[in-house]
Write a structure and sequence with these properties.
Largest sheet: 5 strands, antiparallel
Number of domains: 1
Strand content: 35-45%
Number of strands: 5
Helix content: under 10%
Radius of gyration: 12 Å
Order of helices and strands: EEEEE
């Protein structure tokens, strides 16, 4: 889990340590399918990876990349 709040333009990597690093392009708050109550919201992060692909992930799936 990230040691601080993930923000736009932060360098991140997957919490598993596998794969390349990327740049946070957007942080959104939205309703989560995993939540029972529709009023509960969660943050989602849009990441542009160094290999040119985008992912839309929970902040819990990311760590701040301290190496960059």
């Amino acid at each position: 889990m990230a040691s601080r709040t993930i923000k736009v333009n932060d360098r991140v990597k997957r919490a598993t340590g596998l794969g390349c690093s990327g740049l946070v392009k957007e942080v959104r708050t939205e309703a989560s399918v995993a939540r029972i109550e529709p009023s509960e919201k969660t943050n989602m992060v849009n990441v542009l990876w160094d290999n040119g692909t985008f992912s839309y992930l929970s902040p819990d799936a990311l760590d701040i990349d301290e190496g960059k």
